[in-house]
Amino acid sequence: MLSREEIIYRIGAARRSAGLSARALSELAGLNRGYINRLENGRDFLPSLDALLNIIDACGISEEEFFYHDMKSYKEDMELISSMKNLSNDKKLAIATLLK
Predict the structure, then answer these.
(1) What's the rounded Cα separation, in Å, for the pair 48 and 76?
(2) CB within 8 A of 36, min separation 6: which ones?
(3) At what angle do helices 49-58 and 4-17 cross, to 10 degrees?
(4) What's 1-67's CATH class?
(5) Taking the model in full, what pTM does it have?
(6) Are residues 39 and 47 in contact, defined by beta-carbon separation less than 8 angstroms?
(7) Quick check: 49 pLDDT over 90?
């Protein structure tokens, strides 16, 4: 389970990755103009589930990416998994053996 601090950190990371200011993200997510700024600057609250989903959507990422154990490596990990799907079972087993 993510801590309050981790959720807020991830919102900031997603916002910066999307190239959005706190104000722009607030507006895109349909929130009060200062909402993200107050959230990221340590106000003692967490967004509601609806607000969080709107924030994630406004940042252009999926919920899966936001909650992935390592947001920074999500895209690379998904590319690797996708490329693995095309391998034969023998090749998958060989890679699994190599990784052990």
Answers:
(1) 30
(2) 11, 15, 22, 23, 25, 26, 29, 55
(3) 30
(4) mainly alpha
(5) 0.83
(6) yes
(7) yes
Model pLDDT, residue 33: 92
- CA separation for the pair 19, 43 (Å, rounded): 23
Structure token pair of residue 35: 């909402």
Which residue, 72, 14, 2, is CA-closest to 40? 14
Q: Is the pLDDT of residue 58 over 80?
A: yes
Give the alpha-carbon dihedral of 49, 22, 19, 73, to 10 degrees: -40
Q: Where in the chain is the domain with CATH 1.10.260.40?
A: 1-67
Determine the pLDDT at residue 67.
96
DSSP H helical segments within the chain, as ranges? Answer: 4-17, 22-28, 35-40, 49-58, 63-67, 74-85, 89-99
